[in-house]
Amino acid sequence: MTEQDNALIRMMRNHWQDEKDALSGEDLSRLNHARQQALATMDRPGLIRQLLPARLLMATASAMLLLMIGLHLSQPDTPQPASGLPQTQVQQDDSSPNAFDNDLELLADIDSLDLITELDFYQWLELELDEEQTL
Amino acid sequence: MSWTPTADTSDTLEQRLNGFMASVERQAWLMARQSTGHQDDAHDIVQDVMLAFVRRYRHKPSEQWRPLFFRAIQNRIHDHHRHHTVRRRWLVPTGRGQDEAHSDPANLSPDEVTAHPARRAAADELGRAIDTALQQLPDRQRQAFVLRQLEQCSVAETALSMRCSEGSVKTHLSRAMVALRQHLGEWTHD
């Protein structure tokens, strides 16, 4: 390497160092925040492990949905109700297309997923109560 | 900030990781900014890498932390460019015009230049020439030059960071030097 190359590298090194030293307070604060956030994840389980129950739940729900759609499509057309049949009886019939739509709505409803995730809490509560009873 | 792998062993893992990341975060951010041209993108990249580093590499021997961290930075920068290319291909507006204009020191008002030391330095003519010359290098040449010559990593560490052989590092360095001589040669005569 020539003397000119060495001079070039020295010049660039000085500039690089100046750039590092001259980072704004805002940038330094953001870097510090990012570092602390990363360190805070040390004691937490991995994201995949955290999301595993939810992913299993979603997979099960999706499988059920597909199964229901499959069953529905394989069924012959539902016969129309007799004209003399009361309307309320038609609505309560589980095999009617309306009932199927309602099931789909329920499955797709995010609230139902929330309810299932709360089962963890009830399980924990049950364990706590069991422990209290044994004391 | 200086950091050595053989720092006080009575420190907890968290303290050692904190010290290590504090020692490399500025250069990591500069590398990301150099490559992406955007300050916010550089912050996102460093944040992602810190999270991944703590999760995946914290139990690796601390001698390996530096090359692993820089490798993660290079991978994440590469990933960023891949996504950016896809976005551009599909013509999704990214709202970057304002960011670009703001990050270019040439577009800053004198008040802004005086108010921010980083921008004042970047506004310096030589600084701009160096930044431009580095940005114009192909990615691999820039990585090799920054790690080996500016960060003064060993050839072995640079090769580990870049996931290539030591011979390749030397080739990239040699080509980078040719290009930098062409761009910045006039500055070394003064």
Task: Explain how this protein is built.
The complex is a heterodimer of chains A (135) and B (190). With 135 residues, chain A is mostly helical. Helices cover 78% and strands 0% of the residues of chain A. The radius of gyration of chain A is 31 Å and the shape is elongated. At the A-B interface, helix 1 and helix 2 of A face helix 1, helix 2, helix 6, helix 7 and helix 8 of B.
> Uncertain spans of chain A, ≥5 residues at pLDDT below 50?
none
Q: Fraction of residues of chain B in helices?
A: over 70%
> How confident overall, as mean pLDDT of chain A?
71
Q: Tell me the number of strands of chain B.
A: 0
Largest interface: A-B, 29 and 42 residues
Rg over alpha carbons of chain B? 18 Å
Q: Span from first to last CA of chain B? A: 31 Å
Radius of gyration of chain A: 31 Å
Which structural class fits the helix and strand makeup of chain A? Answer: mainly alpha
Weakly predicted, low-confidence segments of chain B: 97-114
What general form of chain B does the structure show?
globular
Instruction: State the end-to-end CA separation of chain A.
Output: 79 Å
List strands and helices in order, with pairings:
The complex is a heterodimer of chains A (135) and B (190).
Chain A: H1 3-21, H2 25-40, H3 47-74, H4 87-92, H5 97-108, H6 110-117, H7 119-134
Chain B: H1 13-36, H2 39-56, H3 65-89, H4 97-103, H5 110-115, H6 117-123, H7 125-136, H8 139-150, H9 155-162, H10 166-188
Helix pairs in contact in B: 1-2, 1-3, 2-3, 3-9, 7-10, 8-9, 8-10, 9-10
Entry summary:
The complex is a heterodimer of chains A (135) and B (190). Chain A is mainly α and 135 residues long. Chain A has helices spanning 3-21, 25-40, 47-74, 87-92, 97-108, 110-117, 119-134.
Kindly list the characteristics that best describe this protein.
heterodimer, A: 135 residues, mainly alpha, 7 helices, elongated, B: 190 residues, 10 helices, globular
